[in-house]
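A further point concerns the way the authors explain their paired sequence and structure data. An entry of this sort, consisting of the sequence and the corresponding backbone structure tokens, reads as follows:
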Amino acid sequence: MSQTTQGLPALVRKFVKLGCAVFKVYSIDIQQKEDDNGTIKITKIPKMEKWQSVPYRQMAELRDFDQCQAGGVRTGKDSDVTVLDFDSETALITFTHKYGLGPIDEWCSLYAITRPGHYHCYFQYNEEIKTTVKALGIPNLDSRNDGGCIFFGHYDSYVLYGTEPGKLPESVLNDLMIEAASQSADVEYNITVDRAPNYKLRYLVE
């Protein structure tokens, strides 16, 4: 895949051009803590605009990001994208083996390497997919859709590959829809993240 985009200003322009709802992230404090089982827990504490109420597209077009450490995209209907967020190389390998898929650029036409072993895969929006953690039963794989968001540009290594989102592989889509149908209707990303004690959001609205 030949076209690449990196650097916060270029990424902002790219996502706005795609029609995404983009918001400012002033800083992200990433904290690591080892639990009693020896598992490393990573907590991201962003200081950002109140992403559920700001006029995203107008904001992104009219204001600059010079004072920002990162940007964010509100996933789902507002950006017309559904995102699979792989937080480990193992999650990606498990996913591709489960669905008999090849290299990432063979089944995803717009994806980002956020940092080594971590990926954002952007697909055309599907309203029936839920925003959830451990999507498809795979640890370290989250689905981001209505009510969710992703951050970009906060790692120097964040590189976006491709031109525009394509369709989810059919077998993956079918399983995500089955999974969504089995979930309680009141499980939303803004509940599991915004109100979770281990994911503290500090809003700053201009």
